[in-house]
């Protein structure tokens, strides 16, 4: 039986027509989806500019649904989730990006960086640490080290914090010497609490040799020496502080006065404090220390008058009035108590970064967690 080729004349045009219709249908679908995705994207951008985060998130989710391969949309969506405080969804977005095999190395590092910040914002320090560790050696290396330094400080892992500060010292983010000194002082304090006094002493003595500009190192060394009964060594440490960190003398003026009286070395300390007062702005703490070194109370009160001539001060006036013998009027104690109460807030220290005030001087602000943000002067003197 002969094969009939006539049906091919009908099949070929029919197949061509069907293929053409299918391609047109796919093209229409592609164009439709392409129009929907940009429209959703621009709608989300409009909501974002108008600070309407919830509506922006909905629009970006719709855009991602139409174009699941768009990495930029995922990054925008993850950033919105994090800003909104929805850290769980932000983590899922960035983990989804990292799971993609077709992601470029640059976008992979970017997704890892975003994921690390998601964990950090959520307070998951262990997972944030692991995520930032993965960024070491990348273009986010310095930023990752800074974040790891903050994590180690928050977890009070001072040894690892010191190592990270050492690694950052050569970076372009400034000097980390004083921050390193704080870490070593914290380590020394921990050693002292656990009874390892000799190791703490050796650590602090090496620290002041390496970083003499650290006021805290000298103060910690002086306090430890005094604890061990070495008052002369403690006073010598504070005298070295006067040389290397003169702006912090008000913090140690009382200690210098007290220890110099114990060692009967009042005159050298008095002269040192007077020399400091001649070259710096008036300080209530230095004035009070000088007054305490005077054997005659009347001479001590003259120190407060001298301070008042240089700078009006309610605290200095209250201290001067405290040394005046009570008069015949019954109101004298009432007036003095009122002045003392009014001057009490002026004796506090205030963080220059966040404004947190306290009666105690802090090297590490409890409010903003900043180092060396407290000026070594009272509120009234700022």
From TrEMBL:
It is found in: Cell inner membrane. Coiled coil: none annotated. The keyword Cell membrane applies. Residues 349-373 form the LapB rubredoxin metal binding domain. InterPro entries: CellSynth/LPSAsmb/PSIAsmb, LapB, Rubredoxin_2, TPR-like_helical_dom_sf, TPR_rpt. It comes from the Bacteria. Residues 24-382 are cytoplasmic. It is a single-pass membrane protein. One of its GO terms (molecular function) is iron ion binding. Its main location: membrane. The keyword Acetylation does not apply. Fe cation binds at residues 351, 354, 365, 368. HAMAP family: LPS_assembly_LapB. This is Lipopolysaccharide assembly protein B. It comes from Tepidimonas taiwanensis. The lineage of its organism: Bacteria, Pseudomonadati, Pseudomonadota, Betaproteobacteria, Burkholderiales.
């Amino acid at each position: 039986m002969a094969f009939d080729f006539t049906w091919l004349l009908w099949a070929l045009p029919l197949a061509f027509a069907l293929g053409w219709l299918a391609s047109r249908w796919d093209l229409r679908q592609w164009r439709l989806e392409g129009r929907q995705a940009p429209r959703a994207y621009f709608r989300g951008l409009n909501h974002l500019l108008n600070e309407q985060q919830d509506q922006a998130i909905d629009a970006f989710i719709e855009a991602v649904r139409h174009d699941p391969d768009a990495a930029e949309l995922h990054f925008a969506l993850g950033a919105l989730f994090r800003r909104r405080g929805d850290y769980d969804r932000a983590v899922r977005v960035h983990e989804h990006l990292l799971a993609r095999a077709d992601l470029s190395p640059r976008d992979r590092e970017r997704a890892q960086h975003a994921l690390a910040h998601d964990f950090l914002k959520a307070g998951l320090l262990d997972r944030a640490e692991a995520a930032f560790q993965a960024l070491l050696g990348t273009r986010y290396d310095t930023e990752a080290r800074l974040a790891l330094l903050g994590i180690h400080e928050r977890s009070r892992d001072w040894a690892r914090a010191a190592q990270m500060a050492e690694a950052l010292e050569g970076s372009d983010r400034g000097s980390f010497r004083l921050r390193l000194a704080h870490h070593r002082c914290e380590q020394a304090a921990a050693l002292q609490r656990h009874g390892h006094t000799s190791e703490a002493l050796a650590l602090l003595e090496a620290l002041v040799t390496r970083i003499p500009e650290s006021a805290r190192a000298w103060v910690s060394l002086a306090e430890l020496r005094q604890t061990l009964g070495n008052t002369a060594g403690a006073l010598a440490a504070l005298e070295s502080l006067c040389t290397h960190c003169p702006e912090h003398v008000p913090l140690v003026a009382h200690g210098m006065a007290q220890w110099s009286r114990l060692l009967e070395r009042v005159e050298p300390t008095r002269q040192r404090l007077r020399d400091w007062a001649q070259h710096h702005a008036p300080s209530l703490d230095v004035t009070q220390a000088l007054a305490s070194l005077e054997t005659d109370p009347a001479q001590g009160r003259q120190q407060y008058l001298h301070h008042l001539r240089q700078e009006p001060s309610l605290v200095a006036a209250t201290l001067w009035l405290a040394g005046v013998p009570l008069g015949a009027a019954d109101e004298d104690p009432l007036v003095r108590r009122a002045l003392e109460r009014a001057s009490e807030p002026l004796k506090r220290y205030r963080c220059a970064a966040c404004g947190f005030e306290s009666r105690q001087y802090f090297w590490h602000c409890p409010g903003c967690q900043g180092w060396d943000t407290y000026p070594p002067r009272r509120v009234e003197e700022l």
